[in-house]
Amino acid sequence: MSSEYRRKRRRNPDGMIEVHDVMTEVLVGRIGNLSETGMLIHADTALVDDALYQFRFALHDPNGSKHTYEVGAHHLWSDAAGTPGQFWTGVRFIDVSPDDMQHLRVWVQQPGGDVEWR
């Protein structure tokens, strides 16, 4: 029996949101869901277990303005997706600027997208 319980609200995006590795400028994948403490990435390649990354992605705020985020992230787990060469990857944010965190909280709380609590 799993003892994992998510403490923060997670929101699924309404559309495709690309995630890029800031250091290599490579497209890592797309956001599966997002909270203020981490995200699920539908990755195009396997990430290194337990590694640290710096990711960039952009979200639209309630006014329709686009905000670009750069976050430090710790790779927690990966699992093969249904498509060969694709992976579900969970990361925990370890560095988010105060401004980005405020924007992220607003985005997660917006109506729309499926919301998950556990």
Can you lay out the helices and strands and say which pair or pack?
Blueprint: E1 10-11, E2 18-21, E3 27-34, E4 38-43, E5 52-60, E6 66-80, E7 87-96, H1 98-109, E8 115-116
Antiparallel strand pairs: 1-8, 2-3, 2-5, 3-4, 4-7, 5-6, 6-7
Q: How would you characterize the overall build of this protein?
A:
- The chain is mainly β and 118 residues long.
- The protein has a single domain, classed as Beta Barrel (Thrombin, subunit H), CATH 2.40.10.
- Helices cover 10% and strands 47% of the residues.
- The protein has one helix spanning 98-109, and strands spanning 10-11, 18-21, 27-34, 38-43, 52-60, 66-80, 87-96, 115-116.
- The protein has a six-stranded antiparallel barrel.
- The longest helix has 12 residues, at 98-109.
- The protein is globular.
Domain tally: 1
DSSP helical segment count = 1
Helix content: 10-25%
Q: Write out the CATH superfamily name.
A: predicted glycosyltransferase like domains
The CATH class turns out to be Mainly Beta
Largest sheet: 6 strands, antiparallel, barrel
Average pLDDT figure: 88
Sequence of strands across the biggest β-sheet: 2-3-4-7-6-5
Based on CA inertia axes, which overall geometry fits? globular
Radius of gyration: 14 Å
CATH architecture: Beta Barrel
Poorly predicted runs are 1-5
Q: What fraction of the residues are assigned to beta strands by DSSP?
A: over 45%
**CATH domain topology:** Thrombin, subunit H
Could you tell me the number of beta strands? 8
Structural class of the helices, strands and pairings?
Answer: mainly beta
Cα(first) to Cα(last) distance is 14 Å
Q: Secondary-structure element order, as H and E?
A: EEEEEEEHE
